[in-house]
């Protein structure tokens, strides 16, 4: 009776610990999936982005894409298409072929007979044959009767015994201690130790969660640590708040824009958008489908700045024809500006997600890549974005700084090393044959 308060306290602390652990769980991969969509395009994810089972197909333990499974949960078999995990026979732990009568290894307490999993005797852990008198080893807390080969219960608190009497125990359960005469009694020191440990962990988790305040984890697949929930500027504030600058030639061309985006600090992947620019109203629109799902684009642009939202349609099919677990109907915000002294330098900026999924951030760089487009402008005098040019990375190696201009398309997108090694000699963005490669050094700002 003296132990009842301690046991009650221990149960309460365990419940608090379970709640704290549930609160402190990291964001599901779906949040990261939205971040991947931040890049947009048909190749928006690398093979290792999907690792959480929350993002994988049903009954899949590990996957490389939201629609492609690499390993199924126990009791399921990977289909030939690797799109589904098909169930093994009932009570089967492992099978090479799904369906009835194809089990290779049964769950504990069952034995394979003619491809099916038949039950062993009650409380039997392993058996070579099914039936009430065929057990080979019993579960913890039970003893195998030599003559009947059945499992009989040990005394209370006993885990392993040589007979079923109060003094026949060889090993006690957790929280009990073995007495010299072979009986099991509650161990008060163990109860107190576990109570203190659970209580300490609960307090530490509470203090850790409280210290986070209004922060959300900006991690998941695309980052680490906690970041403040800073909202990106509105479309109007970003585009119309700029200083007046000369227009870099004619209006922004509508059609395919290609480039890359970053996530998790340094990782890169390719992206592609079909954008329509209304020169009269300054509106930006578009739509498309990527690894996350179908999306619509809306925003505004000016002479050297671009801001738009990419809104996913909930439950829409992705490019593989399936519904991605990363599609939460969320939005990805883009804010970018002209990266150099001509439109061939493209637009560079940041993408962000700020919603219940969490906080995700990255960079992007887009170039006009529609058929027939070219930019022969040497220097159009556009300012306000040259500082970002020095940070721009080669679209091929994602490492060295951009230092060339390709002719005749005019794309300023490659470093010297990658430009010299192009084979065939085609622009990697618009696929136009290259006639010349010029060294390109942006003019210094005033």
Automatic annotation (TrEMBL):
Residues 43-54 have a biased composition (Low complexity). GO terms for molecular function: zinc ion binding. It comes from Alexandrium monilatum. Keywords: Metal-binding, Signal, Zinc, Zinc-finger. Residues 1-24 form the signal peptide. Residues 394-431 form the RING-type domain. It comes from the Eukaryota. Residues 33-42 have a biased composition (Gly residues). Residues 33-56 are annotated as: Disordered. InterPro entries: Giardia_VSA (IPR052798), Growth_fac_rcpt_cys_sf (IPR009030), Znf_RING (IPR001841), Znf_RING/FYVE/PHD (IPR013083). This is RING-type domain-containing protein.
